[in-house]
Amino acid sequence: MKTITLYHTNDIHSNFDHFASIVTYLKANKREEDLLLDAGDFCDFKSTMVNGTQGRAGKVLLKLAGYDALCIGNNEGFSGVKALEVMADDELPLLSVNLTMLDGTPLKNVKPSILLEKSDIRFLIIGVSPYFGLDGDGKYNVFFNMDNLHVHNPIPLIKAEMKNKQGLYDFVILLSHQGIHTDEYLAKEIEGIDIIIGGHSHTVVDQPYYVHQTVLHIAGEYGNLIGRLELSIDNGTIVDIKGESIPNTFKQDQETLELMKEQTQISIQNLNQTLYTIDSLDHSMTEESELSNFICDALKKEHDCDFALMHHGIVNHDLSGDISKMKLLEASPSPLNPTLIKVKGERLLEALKLSLNPDHVQANGKSPGFRGHCIGALSFSSNVQIQLEPLHVFIDGMPLDIEKLYDVMTDDYLQRGSGYPSLAYPDDHSIYFSGYIRDLLERNLEDKNLIISAKIFRRIK
After folding, report:
1. What is the pLDDT of residues 49-75, one digit of tens each?
2. Which of 267, 290, 307 is the last residue of a domain?
3. Which of 196, 344, 398, 458 is deepest in the core (most CB within 10 A)?
4. What is the extent of the structural domain holding 437?
């Protein structure tokens, strides 16, 4: 009888202060013969340290902690091909069986699987990036394709990988960044997977459980928990699995903190070079915002639309003086894309009324892709004027037509109905554009005419 413990994490999302505490636990408990895996979204590019090193800093932390492999989650994938290749260029495997270049060619240094041997037991570890979803299969390709990436149906690819490696392994572990419901589906569809370590849905699973012959486990989010599975193996068979999600209440590991400090300094040097210098663009979450006005005017300048609108929560504070990539990341950390949608006049009016409610705009804006603090009010491009008392809206000098369907530039936060439900528009009818809102700022902040325009308020009392 042999006992091997599998420790695992998922959806750390660059909460490295929590990760430093996990390392303390691992140093005290993990043996050389144990497995240590991460199921994706470890590197969130909201982090200065991650962003300024193209993801390399996250891998450095994982290597120090003794991880055996990392699965590519959507956040690692959204970093683009260049960052993925940087992250993959070391001895710690970056795994995905179903993520490729847009033309189907493999990503440099990214592996579909690895073979690991622990105490003479051979494990095949396969990584899976998100493909299936409640609102459509392959939906992440809307974003992956903009970065010259493509994610494929993993079921035939997992089966092929298991077949190709047949005879080289005793057990199969799937690192699945697809969510608990998809993990259950895969367990039913694919014979021969022994364990699925999940991620993406941020589900807390206290005790591992079986779906058919496959054990499933997932350990919440943000490093609040550490997954632990104890495998009892006898004569080539897993005869017992005991597991838990351990609350992370440990002290931070000093060696990890020092490494974080070192990597952050490297990142700051990379990001802190001045791009240009601008006059002040003020910002408010509840009142009219020069900076949000600027974003709307830049969207209208770059894209053919009737008008542009943006939630103030897309940025955290004012911008002024010397502008660097660091300052733009701090101001707008959310990985949200410029997006073209259609909005009926009456639904726009409904959102605008909500935008004038201070309690609503200061509410928590949590939503996929959002890294800000609160929802924020709505700003509009300069061709829109809003009379507040009584409320009237004019677009290019004409009153808002409540029956008309307008072409509107915004971001995918509002497109999903986050914060302002009446603005929701179907994914398959929306048009997404490459880059994030902070990239839009970087391209346009040198435009003095846009800065002047942003200071002309659109709300008229």
Report:
1. 998 998 999 999 999 999 999 999 999
2. 267
3. 196
4. 273-460
- Compute the half-sphere exposure of residue 444: CA atoms within 13 Å on the CB side of its CA: 23
| Same structural domain, 60 and 206 | yes
Helix ranges (H only) for 230-344 are 254-271, 290-302, 325-331
Mean pLDDT throughout 201-222? Answer: 95
pLDDT of residue 134: 52
Q: What is the pLDDT of residues 122-144, one digit of tens each?
A: 999 999 999 986 556 778 888 88
Residue ending a domain, among 247, 267, 287, is: 267
d(C-alpha 443, C-alpha 429), whole Å: 27
**For residues 229 and 242, is the Cβ–Cβ distance under 8 A?**
yes
Q: Is the pLDDT of residue 419 over 70?
A: yes
Q: Do residues 311 and 375 make contact, with C-beta atoms less than 8 angstroms apart?
A: yes
Parallel, antiparallel or unpaired: strands 225-234 and 237-247 = antiparallel
Q: For residue 72, give the 3-state DSSP assignment.
A: coil
Determine contact, residues 156/206, Cβ cutoff 8 Å: no
Longest dimension (CA), the chain: 80
The total number of structural domains in the chain stands at: 2
Average pLDDT, the chain: 94
Tokens 């909201």 belong to which residue? 46
Task: Over range 174-186, report the average pLDDT.
Answer: 96
Same domain, 402 and 277: yes
CATH code of the domain covering residue 377 = 3.90.780.10
* Three-class secondary structure of residue 359 per DSSP: helix
Report how far residue 342's alpha carbon sits from residue 425's, in angstroms, rounded to the nearest whole number.
Answer: 7
Q: Which residue has the tokens 């299969």?
A: 137
If asked whether residues 32 and 173 sit together in one domain, one would say: yes
Cα–Cα distances in angstroms (integers) from residue 220 to residues 19, 200, 224, in the given order: 13, 9, 7
Q: Are residues 40 and 89 in the same domain?
A: yes
Indicate whether 78 and 204 sit together in one domain.
Answer: yes
pLDDT computed for residue 236 by the predictor: 84
